[in-house]
Amino acid sequence: APRQHTKTARQRSRQARQDFRWLERTATKRLWPLTRIALPLASGCHHNQYRRTGAPYLAHPLRIARTLFSLGARDDALFAAALLHDTVEDTGMTEQHLRDVLPRASEVVRLVCALTKRAGQSLDDYFETIRQQGRMAILIKVADRHDNLATMNGAFTPERMKNYLTETEECIQPLCAYGLRHFLYIAPFLTPLFTR
Predict the structure, then answer these.
(1) Which among 2, 31, 83, 114 is most buried, taking Cβ atoms within 10 Å?
(2) What CA–CA distance (Å, rounded) separates 111 from 61?
């Protein structure tokens, strides 16, 4: 089993490198300046961070970006925020530093801050903040949850998995339903994530 664990971690590291290069090429080709800034910034923030499986943490935001792209999303700010969504919560990045690094990207900063769960913040308040931020925050959060559910085996403890599944049912599913009701034009993005 440990050998398989290592092999899987190596495969995910290789996939993360491929996803990084793919997104770098895509952002350059499509002239997405925010994504081009966010990509090395996310990589630096998550440098030497690994999941319990041994996979690099950066693979997670890269998979979210790839998922959103595969569903047809083509918004520079959406991809930049998806890449940076865990930086304030899980790294040494602060909101102020993010504002300093992205002075012309207030939308990205606002999305990252909305997606950051604060110490002591209730789940109800957290998900209400995301809901209030609208379609892009909802899309990123749902794609984030989709990726975590798909990769939690081995990365989460059994207790955390149980809590995560309960939270998904109680918070994410209503968030998706809200998004589908109020932002009909994002249904093509949300529906595949919501129904898997």
Answers:
(1) 83
(2) 14
